[in-house]
Amino acid sequence: MNELDFENEFLVQAAKSLSGNSFGLLRVGGTLQDHIHYNMSATSQHCEPFPISPEGGRRSGFGDGCFSKGRQDSFFQFVENVGFKVIFGLNAMVGRKQNGPTSWTGKWNSSETENMIDDWIKQNRMRNFFALELGNEIYGESGIEAKLSVEEAVESFSELWRIVNEKFSSKNRPKIFGVDTALDNNWVRQFLNKSENGLDAFTYHSYPLGAGSSENVDKEIMDEKFNPKIYNLAEKASAFDNLPLGVWMGETGGAYNSGRNTITNRFMSAFWYIDWMGVMAESGHKAFCRQTFIGGNYGLLQVDSFLGVVVNPDFYGAVLFKELMIGKIYKASNNGESSIHQYYSEAILTNGQYQKTLLILNYSADKKQISFEGFKESATKYILSSPNLQSDKVFINQKQATFPPYPNPFKISDYAQPVGSGKLTVAGHTYAFITETLKTEK
């Protein structure tokens, strides 16, 4: 956040492409969230880099840093320009004293947060907000930076609710999400039972592929039988789907500690990312937050020291999924082909038209013939392929995916082809979308 050039043309172009015809959601937070202090008197654009903490310090390896008013102004200009709404993660550790690696005492001091929100209101920034979060991976036994108790969490969130309720009407307030920690149903259930206001949505984090340093990340991604583990995770989380905005996958990059270079930033990555989005949507999750928009080896975008901001293969899959897999999503039959994973979506659009889409992932190295009964020959296909699984190139219907000249956003319609008659041939290690929009309702 403090180093990113928000005026970078490619960054702006990519963000607008993700927002599409509606707004995109950008989560601000993560590992260093609880290290950030909000300096609302500093008009400079940049704070000093995060200092390296001494051995035995906090788990990130860094000390505290700041997010200045000047830098915030640049950030809000960016999100306004590209059409993002912000989910902002607040520092929940201000005021607490560290007594051990994960042991803390004291209460959350909300004064910095309250001063910052006052400034946002004064500057009319709240129109850019969707939700607030409080703390990142600090709650319960699943916490990493800390392991705050249910009672400590209830007290902190109650204070956040006080601030929000005092400053906003119920209609205009930002939503409150939590608890942004690995799934622990028992802890969350206790928290919700003891919390007067609860949450607008339950968000949790998961990295089922394990550490990015593992030599097995690629094998896990391409394991067609890995899916039941994700379904089991999603089913457990769905215990909290009675909240106003349900359950969200609040953060995942597949493999933690920045993913794995040449794996989670290559074409192969779609076989966890696109598939898991299908699983989560089919299981009732309302949203899926990819770690990250930019940065690390698991970003949709990446910073290259020579090329600047570059797009990773999952970016194209993200745009297609967002535009085509809307409405209700179901798991579709694979007719006994374990290497084929399929999902089906249907929705009534705002103009009254009916849209349906079939998503197909072929985990096999062999081509497969896919039946698309119920779709007309004029339906549109998008087949995504690559020279090999570890390539950074993506082809859509055999045309290399690239960005048009600035400032035009990337549009999937530039790659559309009619599906034609008969069965669809899906080459090995590729995935595809078949979509159709009808002029009359279903």
TrEMBL record:
Pfam families (alphabetical): Glyco_hydro_79n (PF03662)
Entries under SUPFAM superfamilies matching the protein: (Trans)glycosidases
Signal peptide: none
UniProt-listed Gene3D superfamilies: Glycosidases
GO molecular function: beta-glucuronidase activity
GO cellular component assignments: membrane
Family per record: Belongs to the glycosyl hydrolase 79 family.
The name this protein goes by in its record: Uncharacterized protein
Naturally occurring in which organism (per UniProt): Oikopleura dioica (Tunicate)
